[in-house]
Amino acid sequence: METVIIIGGGHAGGDSALAIRQAGFQGKIVLVSQESILPYQRPPLSKKFLAGDVGADTLAIKPSSNYEKADIEFLPDTAVHSIERAEKRIVTDDSSLSYDYLVIATGSRARSVEHPDLPAPVNNLLYLRDLSDSKKLQDQLIPGNHLVIIGGGYIGLEVAATAISKGVVVTVLEQQERVLSRVTSPEVSSFYEKVHTDAGVRVITGAAIKTYKLDTAGENIVSIELNNGETLQLDTVLAGIGATPRTELAEEAGLNIDNGILVNEFCQTSDPSIYAIGDCSNHYNPICGRRIRLESVPNAVEQARIAAKAICGSPSPYTPVPWFWSDQYNLKLQMAGLSQGYDQCVIRGEMAEASFVAFYLKHGKILAADCVNRQPEFASIKKLVQQQAEVPPEALCSPETNLKELIQSVASGGT
Amino acid sequence: MKKWQCFFCDFIYDEAQGLPEEDIPPGTRWEDVPDDWVCPECGAAKEDFAMMEID
User: Fold this and answer.
1) Which secondary-structure segment (H or E) carries A156?
2) Exposure winner among A11, A108, A246, A248, fewest CB in 10 A?
3) Are B43 and A332 in contact (CB < 8 Å)?
4) How close does chain B come to A252, measured CA to CA in Å?
5) Among the residues of A237-390, which ranges form H helices?
6) For the whole model, what pTM was predicted?
7) CB A250 within 8 A of CB A104
8) Cα–Cα distance between A130 and A15 in angstroms, integer?
9) Phi, psi of A369 (to 5 degrees)
């Protein structure tokens, strides 16, 4: 009987196990996880769960009965020490397991703050990656406490929105001149900065941290001094400064790595019996025209499906439009495509009314779009990005235009 | 009456409850939800939804 082993119990790993069974695999499926519970939703960890609106019991991606029905063997609290490719086996704490196919879904880890003032870990410098991180942060969301967030990216801003709603005093420190600088345009960045400022969050851009002052025991940060001389007294620090792929196992096993484990269009690594999916993998994206590594739920679950099909002998290539979402306050941000390299930004709708689409064009073609509170149009927008549709900016702006019809006319060759 | 879970996020469409705030009355079966409807949580299209297993 053939065996598939999946390393990693995150969104990619959990969906992979179920997708492989669904694709018709008859053999043994083993899901190895370092965590003690079945795969769970991570997006709520900075939002609904962090706010205390939902309990941990609501986070499971699928109920345990789904794994039982699919006859998936779940190994919790299990660290994998090595992959022995020649023998086709993995080595864990107390045993070794043989595989015919291996799926690496080890995800990514939060990048840590490095500073000479912080030679050792401190108690009140937190990160947000898993359920226990979110619980720790939740305990700190006490009205009147001062939370300093390092990094004005998705994680930082989502936590800021949740924390301010709990009566916490929130300061966001962003090194760049604007928030969300890595993922969106100056127009959308300034929109979000204003939203946060209006909600009472203090956003400091161009912020450089000079010193961290610790308490006498050296266990907690009591204040941060910025390069401009300002000192922030604080209770808690959350760092949301990006993530790095967990590729150590793959690297030690000699797989090809370059900002993630390199995979082909079927999520297959340089070893044909080993696949890599989700945050830890790096694929060539034909729509973006380059190799990319994505940290998103859609990428994790779609790659899980692609690898499952390949393992079960009916491969179909991965050619997705990258997409993301981020909830902050009552705003639903949805992004399709990657906007880097655009030469024109066209706004549809009204930023002042918090209902708009920012289309990014390159040489007249739609490269990407950021949508705020435009859920009904998002499916059409994703298709336009996929088609790299060439649509006159006036048509994109016009409220008379039905975006869905643009897809049809592009598909039929007209304009 | 069945429940359907979004493929990408944790949103569940419960046929018994419908989505009155989106003019989908309680008891609306999944096949009668408009094809251009998208997940209110993450924006996935209707075709991305999957059947939720209920014991």
Assistant:
1) helix A154-165
2) A248
3) yes
4) 32
5) 248-252, 297-311, 375-387
6) 0.92
7) yes
8) 17
9) -155, 140
Q: Which of B6, B7, B8 to mutate to test the interface with A (most CBs of A within 10 A)?
A: B8
Asked if A62 has any chain B CB less than 8 Å from its own CB, the reply is: yes
Taking CB atoms and an 8 Å cutoff, what residues of chain B touch A294? none
CB neighbour class for A265 (10 Å; exposed up to 12, middle 13-18, buried from 19): middle
| Angle of the A154-165 helix axis to the A186-199 helix axis, nearest 10 | 20
Q: For residue range A119-145, what is the model confidence (pLDDT) as tens digits?
A: 999 999 999 999 999 999 999 999 999
Reduced to 3 states, what is the DSSP secondary structure of residue A110? strand
Q: How many residue pairs bridge chain A and chain B with CB atoms within 8 Å of each other? A: 45
Per-residue pLDDT of chain A (415 residues; tens, 9 = 90+): 999 999 999 999 999 999 999 999 999 999 999 999 999 999 999 999 999 999 999 899 988 999 999 999 999 999 999 999 999 999 998 899 999 999 999 999 999 999 999 999 999 999 999 999 999 999 999 999 999 999 999 999 999 999 999 999 999 999 999 999 999 999 999 999 999 999 999 999 999 999 999 999 999 999 999 999 999 999 999 999 999 999 999 999 999 999 999 999 999 999 999 999 999 999 999 988 999 999 999 999 999 999 999 999 999 999 989 999 999 999 999 999 999 999 999 999 999 999 999 999 999 999 999 999 998 888 889 999 999 999 999 999 999 999 988 986 655 544 4
Query: Which token pair is A260?
Result: 């993630």
Calpha distance B35→A126 (Å, rounded): 43
* Chain A positions in Cβ-Cβ contact with residue B39 (cut-off 8 Å): 375
**β-pairing verdict for B12-14 and B49-51:** unpaired
B1 shares contact with chain A (CB less than 8 Å)? no
B42 contacts on A by Cβ (under 8 Å) = 297, 325, 334
Closest CA–CA distance from residue A183 to any residue of chain B (Å)? 18
| CB nearest to A375's CB, from B7, B9, B43 | B43
List strand residue ranges (DSSP E) for chain B, in order: 3-6, 12-14, 49-51
> What is the token pair recorded at A348?
């549809």
Number of H helices, E strands in chain B: 0, 3
Sequence-distant (≥ 6) Cβ neighbours of residue A219 within 8 angstroms: A122, A123
d(CA A199, CA A331): 12
E strands in A152-208: 169-174, 202-205
Instruction: Sort out which chain B residues have CB atoms less than 8 A from A379's CB and list them.
Output: 36, 38, 43, 45
Nearest one of A343, A336, A390 to A368, comparing CA atoms: A336
